[in-house]
Design brief:
The chain has a domain of about 40 residues. About 40% of the residues lie in helices and about 5% in strands. It has 3 helices and 2 strands. Helix 1 crosses helix 2. It is flat. The two termini are about 35 Å apart.
Length: about 90
C-alpha cells in the first residue's frame, strides 16, 4: 500500500508538482494500479510446451524515404544538415 508521503516522494523524483488537494486522489489511483499488479501476479506463467513458441518477424525491407533536405525542410531550426531541437535539461 502506498501512502501520501510515498506519492510525494515519487512526485519529487519524477519532478512533478502535485497540489496538496490532489494528493489523496493520486494516492488512491496509485493504490488501484498496484492492485492490478497484484492480480497479474496471480496469472499462471503458461502451459508446458509454450516455451517453444517464437515471435515471427518479417524481414527488414529497404524502402525509399525522405532526403535529408526534405526532412529538414519544415524544421524550425537546423544545424549541419540535422534538425536542431531545444535542450531538454
Amino acid at each position: 500500500m502506498v501512502f501520501e508521503n510515498d506519492v510525494e516522494g515519487i512526485a519529487k523524483l519524477a519532478d512533478i508538482h502535485i497540489q496538496k488537494e490532489e494528493l489523496a486522489e493520486f494516492t488512491s489511483r496509485f493504490n488501484h494500479i498496484l492492485e492490478y499488479f497484484d492480480i497479474l501476479d496471480t496469472v499462471s506463467e503458461g502451459e508446458e510446451g509454450e516455451a517453444d513458441l517464437v515471435n515471427v518477424l518479417r524481414e527488414d525491407e529497404v524502402t525509399p524515404s525522405l532526403t535529408q533536405e526534405a526532412a529538414c525542410a519544415n524544421a524550425h531550426e537546423t544545424e549541419d544538415g540535422y534538425i536542431r531541437a531545444p535542450r531538454v535539461m
